[in-house]
Amino acid sequence: MNDLISDDPSEAGFDPARLQRAYDWLVRWTKEGKIPAAALCVGGRGKIVRPRLFGRQDPHQKQPLRPDALFLVASLTKPVTATAVLMLVERGYLRLEDRVVEYVPRFAQHGKDAVQIRHLLTHTSGLPDMLPNNEQLRAAHRPLSDFIEEICRTPLLFPPGTRVSYQSMGIAILAEIVHQVSGMTLRDFLKKEIFDPLGMNDTSLGWQVEKRHRIARIRISPEQEKTDWHWNSPYWLGFGAPWGGLITSPQDFALFCLMMLGEGQLGKTRILSPATVRAMTINQLAAMPLVPEEDRRCRPWGLGWRLNWPASSANFGDLLGPRTYGHWGATGTLCWLDPDADAFMVLFTTQPQEPEGRFLARISNCVAASLLPL
After folding, report:
1. Residue 355 has what pLDDT?
2. 293-316 as b/e, with b when 16 or more CB fall inside 10 Å?
3. By the 8 A CB rule, do 259 and 203 touch?
4. pTM as predicted
């Protein structure tokens, strides 16, 4: 691990003076209270620039952000869940064209038998983003298994493969497929097959209870604070949502990014094949003829990864290359990877940024502008 960490951004392909602009903005915004806390980690060319952390551990207190702070990264979980599924694909257990009902028979309710694994990975399944009774399930502290049963009973919003509609519930079903095929919960599968091999010791789906004091608290509304199922609650931090429950550190997630930039390999550890990484990071919508042409061309998705959308500043910013892929999270998190520049950025904050992520996009622009030519 230590041989991967550098204090010199130029070793990882970044201009130090230009990168400093991103750090300066995060200092300013955390001092002004616009963002309670932030952590920025960039890297590439086989190196990770030592993460920089800013702000406070808790929006309501003055204590500085811990140097070993952990973050609930929300939907950055989705490409990690997708990685587990693709590992089963390359091992011969699944095909992307397989129907979900082959692995979860009860999913067939309300005519959902045509939904394929590919649809779940590309947000084209027709499932809703959240269940109609999502808040009631969370208020009752129901386990993931109850969410799965509700999804199986939920009708589709449109026929699979005909539209793109962001769907966290499709990612939940992927977790159930991993469970049915491997015999392991997604949490255990990720730990055994990804986190432990990569040395991501501070990363888990749902909290590691003994490390709960290290989790930076997210700024939430007064209405949310009245509930006992919000982002900072023991229930949600322990729930381990396959679509949004990953808890990690910026340095840990940087290891995952280096693995992806290494075409599935980090050091001597191979997680994915180059063929799998390629499939995950190309426009999968291009081969779906019933998806509207505007989505196929202007809002492409890979398998679990969002690709760079031209003419959209949201979250990713304006300066990233055409082969860039990544994801964002509602808790104020963003990562992107540019294989042409051999570079990545990991930005965790505790300020929810939906829907357009302006703070995230502005930092992304500063980081992209600091990239040195290969």
Report:
1. 67
2. eebbeebbbbbbbbbbbeeebebb
3. no
4. 0.98
